[in-house]
Design goal:
This protein folds into two domains: about 190 residues, Up-down Bundle (Growth Hormone, Chain: A), CATH 1.20.1250; about 210 residues, MFS general substrate transporter like domains (Growth Hormone, Chain: A, Up-down Bundle), CATH 1.20.1250.20. The protein is about 80% helix and about 0% strand. Helix 2 packs antiparallel against helix 9, helix 7 crosses helix 20 and helix 14 packs parallel to helix 20. It starts with 7 loop residues before the first helix and ends with a helix. About 45% of the residues are buried. InterPro entries: MFS, MFS_dom, MFS_trans_sf, Tet-R_TetA/multi-R_MdtG-like. It is a multi-pass membrane protein. It holds the Pfam family MFS_1.
Length: about 450
Amino acid sequence: MASATPGPRQERGTEAEARAAGPGAFGTRRFLLCLYLVGFLDLFGVSMVVPLLSLHVKSLGASPTVAGIVGSTYGILQLFSSTLVGCWSDVVGKRSSLLTCILFSALGYLILGASTSVFLFALARVPVGIFKHTLSISRALLSDLVAEKERPLVIGRFNTASGMGFILGPMVGGYLTELDGGFHVTAVICFSVFLLNAGLVWLFPWSEVKSSTTKNGLQLGKNNTFAGKTGYKVQNATTTHGATASEKTARLPWTEVMSALRDTKSLIFSEMWDIFLVRLLMAVAVMLYYSNFVLALEERFGVRPKTTGYLISYSSTLGALAGLALGPIMRLYKYNSHRILLHSSLLTFTLLLLYSTAHTMRVVVFSSTLLSFSTAVGRTCVTDLQLTVGGAQASGTLIGVGQSVTAVGRIIAPLLSGVVQEVSPCGPPSLGAALALVAIFIMLLKKPGYGGDRSDKLKSE
């Protein structure tokens, strides 16, 4: 991107980019703290409402079958919208897409608070299912702001901040639901939290990282991640930015979105299918563990749901704090995300197997403690692998595809759980352990494709 003889303006731009690129720079650090706060508030608001959805739709007179169909609406919409919204964020910019997603999600929770029928309840899930990608866009924005070496650490801290919101939200929601019309009050408060988040995003110090985001925006708008396939060059985008600005504005954003999606499809099926398959298998494995956790503990050990809730909060807290340990772990493994993912998946497989064969609650608590840690580390590392192999320039698209894969897991996991529960309450975690084992074999077989050597090469670049 550098010309042969840089002028004063270009030198100033280069200095600004250097300041924004370093995670130790004051402007970027303040911006990261703002994003952490957005992640906390997002899951804080959502987790106040989500645990109460099944009770509310039942109070509206929905049968279990209808409630199940309405509940699956969110996962189905997420399946199709994750990749599209992620790619759209790469084209129009992270600020506009983040604000849009927050505001439309707020609208969905407002309708949910006013829902007095099953139809309104289902209608409220539509804007949330389509636009609830604030965390994905925030992670993509994080990957654009920091160096690749620091990306897992920063994303881990973001997961910690959002995880703390998920811990506090259910407690507040549980208290509010005891009030008269508690669900409606909770949904309105969630709506207010999302409006607060939108205000924070609007007031973000975007100017302090403007050079960095503009640079990334040029790359994303030109689909530079797939440079070998598209033929666009970042150098041309930089030198002719003034001349092409009107052309880019005239072009329909969805034309660029569809073009990027076609390139993403070829990339995924040619190079990244194994990463997304591992993500799907591990996601379904963990979802199977949680699918009947409360019921299984009651049937196997006679544990009351209230006590199980405390155990879930305890493990969620540990999972959130696991993000703080990513720094030492990454240094210990010399920033080899593939090896960390492999070892965390091995630990997850062992703990799922241990839980499914446990005979005492001590074993359950032990397995739950370590499982929250291994799954939190694994989620961060698989995201880092996606961005490393696919290229961080199209971060929104790549993370969106990953969310679509997870949405597939949300659809598959309840079906598998219902079938294997007919055999035994230990069926879901046992099946989850088997799927985790398959994912481990895939990582071992495909290690030369995206293992340590390639990762080191990309990081050095």
